[in-house]
Amino acid sequence: GDEEEPTQMQFKVILLGDGSVGKTSTATRFTQGHFKRTYKQTIGLDFFIKRLVLPGEINVALQIWDIGGQSIGSKMISNYIYGADAIVLMYDITNYQSFRNLEDWMRLVRKVFSEGPMPHVALVANKCDLEHVRTVTKEKHNDFADENEFYSYSLSAKSGDNVRGTFHRLAADLAGVT
Ligand code: GDP
């Protein structure tokens, strides 16, 4: 018939960063809308699908891959990163080491994509509800984002602040919607 299915764009987004920066909490908050307090080291791999409708009735499905507490040394990480449309580099604003280690995470990403074009990379500062104990300054964040031409966001998985905004902006950038 003449009926057309609405086109559905799908993007693979992988959350990277040190253990306990809040990757699982952010993915859970965004996809299920709540914040889980208990900390469970993610053993395998979780992935969530979230469907969004962008301005212009553009339907986008984000496949959000969460490596949980897996370390950068895990042999499986490269396989997860492979084929990503977007990388979310997440750190905890109260943990300077988690920010510094993003250099190592980026090195791994560059290695995985050494043969092809780099995916979209977003630098995400989490735990913005803990502003009073912040150890990574906004200036450091902005410098790092500018030097690498990363998209830049800050949010709180705990309060929910800017979680939806971040993923909607990311989806719009991936879909080429301005
Ligand atoms: P992951 O290892 O990166 O997946 O981190 P988790 O999502 O498991 O979170 C690690 C710990 O940080 C848990 O105790 C969470 O409750 C806590 N956490 C995560 N996001 C936030 C946040 O935005 N603010 C605060 N205050 N704590 C958070």
Automatic annotation (TrEMBL):
This is Ras-related protein Rab-28. Keywords: GTP-binding, Nucleotide-binding. GO terms for molecular function: GTP binding; GTPase activity. It comes from Hondaea fermentalgiana. The chain holds residues 64 to 241 of 284 of the full protein.
